[in-house]
Every structure is written in C-alpha cells, then in structure tokens.
Amino acid sequence: MFRIAALTVAMGFASVTSGQAGHHAKSASAEIINAQGAVIGEATVKQGPNGVLLHVRVTDLPPGKHGLHLHSHGVCEPGEGFKTAKGHVGKVEGAHGLMNPEGPEPGDIPNIYVGADGIGEMEAFTTLVTLEGGDNALLDADGSTFIIHEKADDHISQPIGGAGGRIACGILKAG
User: Domain 1-17+25-69+77-129+151-162, what fold?
Assistant: First the structure.
C-alpha cells in the first residue's frame, strides 16, 4: 500500500493565546463524504494552547495532490457540489494561499496527497483558527467543513489556488 503523509509546522505567524484554557471543546471530528454521499474518511482537529492540529485520512480518491481547505459553513450537500459549505474560513479577498504575500487566509491548509491505492493522509498545525472563540472559530454558530478539491492547490492563485471542483466534504462536530 502506498501512503504519503504531509507534516506542516506552524502555518502563520500569529499565536492564538487569549482565553484558550477556558474552552470546552478540546477536539472535533468530521466524517468525509464523496459526491455520492458515501463516507470515505475522517478528519480530526485537536485544540492546543497555541493553535490546532489537523489530521485527515481518506480512501477511494483519485491519486495525486488535492487542495484541502476549511470552509465557513457546516453544510455538506453532495447534490449541490458541496457549494453550501460556502467560502473559506476567514475569507479575505485576494489573500488565498500559503505562499501568497497577502495571505494566507485562515481556511488555507496544505494539500492532501493520495497514493495509487486511493488512500490519502495529512497532518498539519495552524495558529490561524481555533475550535471555539475568536474570529476564526471552527465550531461557531454556522459551523465549518473540510473540503477536498479535484486538483492540487498551488497556494497562490486566486480564489482557490486552481484546485478545481469540490469532490469531498466533512462537517466538523465537537467531541
């Protein structure tokens, strides 16, 4: 079995430090579904003292790199092409991309790599979001989703790094 994992350390320069000790949600997870509504994986988010650790594992996806983003609404409707998940968490016009001098947006995270066997896995850390509290909380009133795109994110092109259509989605839930 061919598996590739990506590790990214410290996306962003700001440190999230205010009020984190009082947060109730220490972790969240999402079942990732494909365009047919079948469960193909899982994502987890663990709150740390200075950011969150993200882990995503999927199966049955086309091999190669796929853009992976955090989207601002906790809705995954396959019949709508997952467009109901809306835009990125903390969307800033013209700031998409980890390599963008104007960015990144809080919802920007590294690509997920899928092997020839259809299995993909990634882990990353970001200081740009929290589970609860602050401007870019993933478990806010309208929730958040993980979106996987059909192509790689080039981390600079606007608005989504040339990543193409949305092929998988997962609604983040506390616990």
Answer: Immunoglobulin-like (2.60.40)
Each domain of the chain, given as residue ranges in start order, spans 1-17+25-69+77-129+151-162
Angle at 126 between CA 156 and CA 169, to 5 degrees: 75
How confident is the model over 86-121, as pLDDT tens digits?
999 999 899 999 999 999 999 999 999 999 999 999
Give the angle subtended at the CA of 91 by the CAs of 51 and 109, to the nearest 5°: 45
As beta bridge partners, residue 126 has 11, 52
Q: Which two tokens stand for residue 139?
A: 């478990």
Whole-model pTM above 0.70? yes
- Burial (CB < 10 A; 0-12, 13-18, 19+), residue 93, is exposed
